[in-house]
Amino acid sequence: MLLRTLASVVLLLVSGLIGWRVIAPTEVLAVATTPYPELAVRSPGATGHTPVAPLIVDGRIRVYAAKHQVKADGPVDGRTQYTARWSLRRWPQQLSGVVASGTTVVTRWSDGELVAIDARTGEIAWRQDGPAGPGYTGHRTGASVVWAPPGLRLAAGAVLASDDQTLAGYDVSTGTPRWQASTTSSCAGGFTTAGGAYVCEASVYDGVTGAAITTWPSGPWTPVGCDSESSNCAGFRDAAGQGWLAGTSLPPQRAVALDAPGATVAAGVIVTALEDRVVAQDADGAELWTSWTGLTRVLGTAQKRVVLLTRDNTVISVDPRTGSASGSFALAVDDEGILWKPGAFRLSGDHLAMERLLPNAPDDPESPVYYLTLDTVIIASL
Considering 324, 326, 350, 363, which has the largest number of Cβ atoms within 10 A of its Cβ? Predict the structure, then answer.
């Protein structure tokens, strides 16, 4: 009887220890043990595909998001996803968002902690307490966490973190707090301009100082020409639908050509994709070129060129001033098919990453018939 009792006590203690090791808060950092990859220089074309969405950093590594982990692999032009070069796992915190500036990768977590990682080594560069972040929203590929991170933006050399009541700016390179402002819930989904402003639904802030800007056209505002979904936007439309350029300084510049609902800014020109052609104009509406007959989508800017995607998933890079093509290729690896529906995407430097969806995919990333394949994210050099 005594032996059975002792055995039961030992089992309970062991079970408790195992349970504690599983559920106890912990942080695991694995730094890089191999050399930093060389800069990938490739001719234009698709290079590979991965099951999760990469944030391409410094043209050398790919950073991925998971619910409790951020990790990186390389090289950028690898045909598939490889063993992680470095990783950071925080339990039970969830990864809210990831942004990158140069070789600094800034991660935001559900407890509000901002952890910056040196992309070259995987070592922690700095960490700061910030506004509490939302939980993981990345679905299967993690695209929304690395390509459109909620409440995490870049502007004027700062990383800006927001929640329903607070907007705070931190120096990207050091993590030093720059400023903090009290806001309303409408600011949590704001965007930043390439000129250095943070724009909420009803207010605008200087990204350098946090000071409110009152000399701004009436909002709410709709961003266009952004690096990601809501950072470093080159322009916007105001409440009256009037277009403005915001790419060089805080005072925006009126751009009549940007009034058109389908117009955007790419490589410094205003580009509009119409049903039968693409038209490029300057800020005053003077036509620069008309080209590429047929339904074509404007993806954005890469290597100071306008990047287009045709209906048959062909990528075309054109000169922003003349419209002449510098290269085109089918967005497929080897003999893969191109009959798929474009999903979320991100242009990073001279690379493109894009989700591939089934042609009749429902509007639900959790659906089993949403993504084209397991390795649904295709990566290309531009």
Answer: 350
Is residue 53 scored above 70 in pLDDT? Answer: yes
Domain boundary among 219, 254, 289: 254
CA–CA dist 32, 71 (Å, integer):
10
Q: Mind listing the pLDDT tens digit for each residue in 127-154? A: 999 998 999 998 899 999 999 999 999 9
Residues 138 and 159 in one domain: no
Q: 115: burial class by Cβ within 10 Å (0-12, 13-18, 19+)?
A: buried
Tell me how many degrees the CA angle 211-212-215 measures, rounded to the nearest 5.
125
Residue 303: predicted pLDDT = 81
Cis? peptide before 362, omega within 30° of 0: no
User: In the prediction, which pLDDT does 24 show?
Assistant: 65
* Residues 70/88, Cβ–Cβ less than 8 Å: yes
Q: Which domain holds residue 120?
A: 28-150
Q: What is the CATH number of the domain that holds 192?
A: 2.40.10.480
The answer, yes or no, to whether residue 15 has pLDDT greater than 60, is: no
Angle (CA) 235-379-381 rounded to 5° is: 75
Closest listed residue to residue 36, CA positions, set 87, 8, 7, 74: 74
Helix (H) or strand (E) holding 20: helix 2-23
Same domain, yes or no, for 94 and 196? no
User: Backbone dihedral region of 292: left (phi > 0), alpha (psi from -120 to 50 degrees) or beta?
Assistant: left
For residues 50-55, give the mean pLDDT: 97
Considering only the C-alpha atoms of the chain, give the largest distance between any 2 of them, rounded to a whole number of Å.
94
Residue 78 covered by a domain: yes
Q: Among positive and negative, which fits the CA dihedral 206, 211, 216, 218? A: positive
Q: Do residues 267 and 320 touch, judged by C-beta distance below 8 A?
A: yes
